[in-house]
Amino acid sequence: MFLGNKKCRIYAACGVSQTPMNKRTEGKKMAGKIPNDPIMCLSFVNTQLRDFYPDLNELCSAFDTERSELEKKLQAVGYTYDREKNQFR
Question: What is the DSSP letter of 65?
Answer without folding.
Answer: -
